[in-house]
Amino acid sequence: MALTETKVIDKIEVVENGSVQIREVTRIMKDGAEIAHTYHRWVFAPGADVSEMPANVVAICNAAWTPEVIAAYEAQQEANKLGA
Length: 84
Hints:
- With 84 residues, this protein is α+β, with helices and mostly antiparallel strands.
- It has one domain (3-83).
- Helices cover 32% and strands 42% of the residues.
- The chain has helices spanning 55-64, 67-83; strands at 3-14, 20-30, 33-44.
């Protein structure tokens, strides 16, 4: 009986406000068949530091986070503070 554990980022989504959602799945395998899995998620706001994430995440963030997207996100966050 061989048990193995693998982790992989299986989902990267850019949502309407420019935030990037990441999902990592950890799979437990027994003799080649998955017997369990768990998920871990992160959400990064436009302009956040993602330098510690894998290259594919960094590339998607860099493509999605244009100066206009970052400015619009920051403006919305400021408007939310003033309206609270």
